Q: What sequence folds into this?
């Protein structure tokens, strides 16, 4: 449930006050990873893991001469990363500016912060 505009302003004011009163907290908050960065890392690692697993299945299938293992390797190597990229692009990339934010956000917070 999103915060109302009044609650968001109160939260921003509280955060500014805490940052000015405690420089260590300010430094710590600046170093924190944003959810967008975490999503990118998880998505990248998942795609790499799927490719490694797919190649391993292809190698096993080739060694055993089993068409089922080879088909599974092709599917995992090609379709799983493609599906993950498609899922992420529909869910996280803003349609107008292509920043990594939830699509449900009307105005991209990264673009409005710069403006």
A:
């Amino acid at each position: 449930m999103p915060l109302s505009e009044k609650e968001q302003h109160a939260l921003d004011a509280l955060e500014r006050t805490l940052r000015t009163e405690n420089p260590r907290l300010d430094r710590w908050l600046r170093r924190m990873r944003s959810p967008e960065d975490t999503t990118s890392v998880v998505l990248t690692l998942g795609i790499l893991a799927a490719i490694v697993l797919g190649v391993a299945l292809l190698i096993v299938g080739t060694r055993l001469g089993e068409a089922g293992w080879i088909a599974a390797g092709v599917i995992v190597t090609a379709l799983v990363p493609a599906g993950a990229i498609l899922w992420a692009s529909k869910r996280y990339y803003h349609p107008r500016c292509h920043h990594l934010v939830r699509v449900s956000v009307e105005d991209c917070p990264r673009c409005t912060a710069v403006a």
Q: What stands out?
A: The chain is about 75% helix and 0% strand. The chain has a mean pLDDT of 79. The helical segments are 5-21, 23-31, 35-64, 67-92, 109-114. The chain has two domains: 1-32, 34-114.
